[in-house]
Structure of BCL2 interacting protein 2:
Amino acid sequence: MTIWKLGPLKAETNPSEESILSGLEASGDIDLDDIDTPSENSNNEFEWEDDLPKHKSTDAVRKGSLLEYTASEEKEEERRWRMYQIGDQGHRVDMKAIEPYKKVISHGGYYGDGLNAIIVFAVCFMPESNQPNYRYLMDNLFKYVIGSLELLIAESYMIVYLNGATTRRKMPSLGWLRKCYQQIDRRLRKNLKSLIIVHPSWFIRTLLAITKPFISSKFSQKIRYVFTLAELAELIPMDSVTIPECIKQYEEEKYKKKLQRIDQEFNGKQEQKSEQ
């Protein structure tokens, strides 16, 4: 008789709505080494207790399936995974999974004298936090962003953080951003000259104000808020900077609302004068 032993059932958490506030908690002084995790010998898998024939192992099945790949399938598999160097270690990135989100980081040309790079980070291209595979996407996107910085930057650089046209679900947690900064090579952290946040929302300004005591004074001095694309153009050359259409529309809508508000205030004053 075959006896099946089931390990303890565990509830899985849904990664939806990982907000910036949750990221703030995640970025605290939590020692992950103190968290208990199942050991390799934990009894969480099916076991056989008789001499009946066993199915092939996962590795064997995987090896067998690889032998059946066609030439085009093998090329597709090679294109799916790419190695990125982060520090002294190489990391595999699932390029197929992050394909819709690769525009999140781009090279915006150079400024000043020499190879001073402009790196554009467009938050509107981030995945939404209510996706079932959100953690997997963010893990691979994290490696892609850090690995791309290593390739794109030669000397000093600035980051243009495009915050406009971004829903709360697309905003990365503060913990994720902090992890990115910590994983950047020391040379790159030192050579970061400026972090320009374009269209900063009230929410992100409040959060940065709250976390200011925990951020080094040197880094705080590098942060600058810019409220329009015209103001950004006064700071950096825009020839090679790609601005997403959604951000252009976002600014146009804000400008129209501003004009409407001015017209309403003006008409209100005119009516008051006529009544007098």
Summary: Residues 100 and 125 are 8 Å apart (CA to CA). The chain has two domains: 76-245, 246-275. Strands lie at 81-86, 89-94, 105-110, 117-122, 157-162, 192-198, 223-226. The first helix runs from residue 20 to 26.
